[in-house]
Structure formats: C-alpha cells, structure tokens
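We were asked to recover a plausible sequence for a given structure. The inputs and outputs are reproduced exactly as logged, with field labels preserved.

PROBLEM: sequence recovery
POSITIONS: 349
GIVEN STRUCTURE:
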C-alpha cells in the first residue's frame, strides 16, 4: 500500500467567531491510501484550541503513520485514540479504498432520492450582522437555525432573539443556541431561564466542559434542554462514557466524529444515548467538503429526523469540489458527482 499526506489551509469567507475566539483560517490534512486497484482519501481537520489533534507533533505523527502503512504494518485505529481527527481520516481513507468510485454509504440520500434536513448556522457578530445572517437563512428556506452566543453582551443577544421570536413563532422557526461553554456555573441557570422564555429548542454546552457536577445540577434544574458537545471530547472508554451520561443525564448529544475519533466512535455514543432516551444529532467540525461528504452520507443511514448540523460546505474560499448542495434548508446529494475530482485535487494540492 502507498500512503502519503498533504496539508491544506482552509480560508473562511468571513471570520468565524465563537465564544472561544475568531478563526480566519484553519488547517486540514488529507491522508491518501492507494493500491494497484483502489484509492481512498481521508481528512484530518483539527479545530485550533479544541481538537486533541491540535498539537505541534501532528505532522510528525502523520508521517510516521504513512511510513508504517507503506511497510505493510497493521495499524489499528485504536492506536490513534489521542488523535481523533487523524483516526477519522484513516477510517475514511480505508472506506474509500473499499468503495472505489461508489458511494461510501449507499442510501436513498446518496442516490439523490432523499435530502437531509439541516440547521442554518448563524455566526457571532454585531447585532446587525447577525440579523442579516438570520434573514439570509430564512430566505434560503431554513426552518431551523442555530445561533452562536456568549461572545456578545448577553442582553444584546437576548434582544436579538426576542426580536426574532416576535416575528417568527416556534411553529415557524426552531431556534437552537450554542454557548461553547461561555457561561459561568453560578450565572448559567438564570441565563437559561431567560433563554427558555423565548421557546428555544435547546442550548449546546452552556458551561465549560469538565465541570460534571455543575453540569449535572444545571441539567436537573434547567427549563431549557441542554446538549453536550465539547463535554464528549477525549472520553474513549465505554465505562467512562456511561458514567458521564449517567452523571449528567443531558437531553441531547452533539456528535462531531472528527473530535470523537471517527464514525465508529460516534456510533458508540449513539448506542449509549438511545439506551438512555437521550436525543442526538450530527454536526460537522468545520471539515472541508471531503469530510462533510463522508459525514452526510453516513448520517443519512442513521434514520434521525432532527435537523443536522451539516450546512458548512460554503464557509471556505478554497474548498474542495462537492456532491452536496443546500436547497430549501435541506442537504442534497448529486449521485452524478465525479469522485475522481478528489484525487485530482490531492494531486495538485
């Protein structure tokens, strides 16, 4: 087997701001595996300041992985537990080797016969900019929007949401918010009570990850459903996952395979969630169109009717080609897409 990797820095059309900071671009690495008969490509796309893979030795680890694969050494994906985005890349590249030019996950979606409902993502900005983003998403047919909150003044954010609710009822628009851990535990419940008055769907990660006792108390008292996101990162052991869910008992899980170690690891979280009556949906970790394509095909096989967080394909000025398109707030797949476009992109990157 031949194995190699290339780096590609994705550039945002406009700054991507959350309560953790602002990104103008982000690194991505493409892992290519090939034999005489097949070729597969996977994406390792770490999020700066969040992904476990965001570390200075990542490129050295990529090189060492390729050297091991080149020599025919068996590499188990579990060996990459400390590099979840790289583990996802290896898993995906291997799936590509097996599938060839066919869809990675055959379904009505990859046949172009069914679409995936998705939420429209509203980035943090000033109130006027966010209001313009919301109008654009509604004009595009979205009926579920997700707003990043926590970086602006809370009263300003509440005012924006109140204005939105005055114009659109919960029957018109479902609103999700994502605080990315911005609230302090001592203030969080009061803020959630204020937000709940606006009949929101849920809030993601209201307080910083790792405060399990505080999060459990918040879930027990909140009038607004809470979804865990960053809280799931770095928990690889099945017993530890069960303990987390039993302690916190969240309403939802947000699954980002690049942060969790790949599709199989995300599926393990889904099984645990289903056993406990916990809802969930899949969200991208701002991968390129390569990773997003994998996530979309896989998500379509999971039979989850909730809007998914997979509408990030237009974020970058230098993205890869894609079979995905957004129409009327849904993600569609073009079965006539030329899969060879990925190989050509890699060859010329």
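RECOVERED SEQUENCE:
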């Amino acid at each position: 087997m031949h194995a190699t990797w290339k780096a590609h820095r994705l550039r945002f059309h406009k700054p991507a701001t959350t309560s953790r900071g602002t990104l103008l671009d982000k690194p991505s690495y493409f892992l290519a595996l090939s034999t005489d008969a097949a070729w597969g490509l996977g994406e390792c796309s770490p999020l700066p300041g969040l992904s476990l893979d965001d570390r200075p030795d990542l490129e050295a680890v990529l090189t060492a992985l390729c050297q091991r694969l080149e020599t025919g050494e068996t590499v188990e994906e579990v060996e990459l537990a400390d590099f979840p985005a790289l583990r996802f890349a290896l898993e995906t590249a291997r799936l590509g080797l097996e599938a060839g030019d066919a869809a990675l996950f055959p379904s009505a979606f990859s046949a172009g016969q069914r679409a995936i409902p998705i939420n429209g993502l509203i980035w943090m900005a000033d109130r006027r900019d966010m209001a313009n983003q919301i109008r654009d998403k509604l004009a595009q047919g979205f009926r579920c929007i997700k707003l990043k909150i926590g970086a602006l003044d809370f009263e300003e954010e509440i005012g924006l949401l109140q204005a939105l609710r005055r114009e659109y009822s919960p029957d018109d628009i479902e609103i999700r918010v994502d605080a990315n851990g911005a609230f302090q535990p001592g203030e969080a419940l009061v803020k959630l009570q204020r937000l709940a008055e606006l009949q929101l769907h849920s809030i993601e990660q209201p307080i910083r990850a790792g405060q399990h006792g505080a999060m459990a108390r918040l879930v027990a008292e909140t009038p607004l459903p809470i979804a865990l996101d960053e809280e799931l990162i770095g928990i690889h052991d099945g017993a530890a996952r069960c303990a987390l869910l039993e302690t916190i008992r969240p309403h939802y899980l947000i699954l980002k395979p690049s942060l969790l170690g790949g599709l199989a690891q995300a599926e393990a979280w889904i099984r645990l969630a289903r056993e406990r009556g916990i809802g969930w949906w899949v969200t991208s970790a701002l991968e390129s169109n390569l990773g997003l394509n994998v996530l979309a095909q896989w998500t379509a096989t999971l039979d989850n009717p909730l809007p998914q967080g997979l509408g990030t394909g237009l974020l970058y000025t230098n993205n890869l080609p894609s079979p995905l398109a957004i129409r009327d707030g849904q993600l569609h797949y073009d079965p006539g897409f030329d899969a060879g476009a990925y190989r050509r992109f890699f060859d010329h990157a």
